[in-house]
Amino acid sequence: MNGMRDDPLDLLPELFLLGGAVLGLLACAFLPRGRGRPVAWICALGLAGGLAAASVAAAGPGGTVFASYALDPLTHVTRVAVAAATLVVVVLAAGGTAGGRSGGAGGRRLEAEVHVLLLLAALGTIVMAGAEDLLVFVAAYLLASVPGYALAGLGEDSAGTEAALKYYLMGAFLGVLTLTGVTLLYGLAGTTAYGGLGGRLPSAPSAAVACALVTLLAGVLFKAGGVPGHFWVPDVTEGAPAAVAAFVTTVPKIGAFAALFRMAGGFFTASTADWRLLLALVSVATMTLGNLAAFFQDNVRRLLAYSTISQAGYLLLPVVVAGRGDLAEPALLFYLGAYAVTNLGAFAVVVAVGGDRLRDHTGLAGRSPWLACALAVCLLGLVGTPPTAVFFGKLTAFAAAWSGGYAWLAVVAAANTVASVFYYLRWIVPVFRPGETVVAAPPGDAVPSEGAASPGVAVPREGVPSPGGVAARKGLARGAVAVACVAAAASVALGLASGVALTLGGP
Questions:
Q1: Residue 70 belongs to what H/E stretch?
Q2: Would residue 241 count as lying in a domain?
Q3: For residue range 430-440, what is the model confidence (pLDDT) as tens digits?
Q4: What count of Cα atoms within 13 Å lies in the side-chain half-sphere of residue 89?
Q5: Computed from CA positions of residues 485, 371, 246, 116, in that sequence, does the dihedral angle turn out positive or negative?
Q6: In terms of residue numbers, what domain contains 399?
Q7: Fewer CB atoms inside 10 A, N or C side of the chain?
């Protein structure tokens, strides 16, 4: 750190996202409905500018801006990861629809405002990670949450409405608990700055501090998708458009874990409460519940939802040992980046295929070998299979927990990792199994559906695997297939690069 600064240019990445959102919102006011492509371009340029500015800022000096916002590796990595991930989601959303469950065919195109909401939620996520004051954290938490509630209901059907309602109610309830924790901490320490809390909490009553930390954790675990704030994840992932589902299961998690790690290192360690054991138990409950619930899912989106819950459990390992050794922070940051790349790749396949059931993916390898290979790489990556990036993320997270005195937690996480292979293989095996060919139905035999096809257009009959959109939705499929393949390649490249780095850095 190089001290405190008050230069607004230090916040240039955040200003790019804010400017893109404001300009996009103004464009929405003047453009006719259904012609929102310029808004997508405006938001994409804002994200690209923010990504470039964040990359440049990462090489600059650290410090604190306006005495409440940190410029350090946690903030820099969050800026880059969130901007890049949101840019990918904007690409997926640009061709998506609201009515189709997978954001593909069969529905009204997403409104242009979706891109503005994505940018605002991404901005809140970044600020949440960099906040060094509880008041700034709360403001960022709200900015990251409120646009998400609107995004979840974009489907405008019963599933989307239910998803948005559950998301909002859980967010409001757990957000109130977080505000209660902030109030208690301020009352106990007389300050909301992380540094001030770290200096004054040791002299505060331990029972009151423990209550404050538990209630504060409620909102953070909600954003991270961890137990007990995980209930919204499956319904929102299934009910929202696929691009939105990819966003809410990836981007908020980055900011939540970065913020939680900063809190743990900033003032959790100063308290006498056994917060490490609490988070360790939450980690075990989260990864175990996520894996057990995913075992028998036939809907690929719900499977990914429970997968992301289990990943939250693994990501808690470095947080548990925050302040014990130098491995925890890089382990968390690398794991977050690896998870973001891999999870977005899996959701890109869902967008490209256009079907949410496992049987919709049967024979995908015969229709699109590259897409099938990308899916296999991403799913095996989520398991933690070498040489993917998540493997090295999990390896460093387990090593951090082991060296930090929580060897039992690393063993439980390794056992859960082995157990997770089962449900990922339930998705991978049908992909490489020969599937039935969908025959074009004559006009008289066409099956009506939401967003019904016109006469002469092939409509899959019940029980017959969908053609996956690879042929039926060439425009959208090309973009989604490209995103999936690039994500899979990036996962392997990151894994290989980290493996080389570990080899060169070893004894």
A1: strand 69-71
A2: no
A3: 999 886 544 33
A4: 34
A5: positive
A6: 274-436+466-507
A7: C
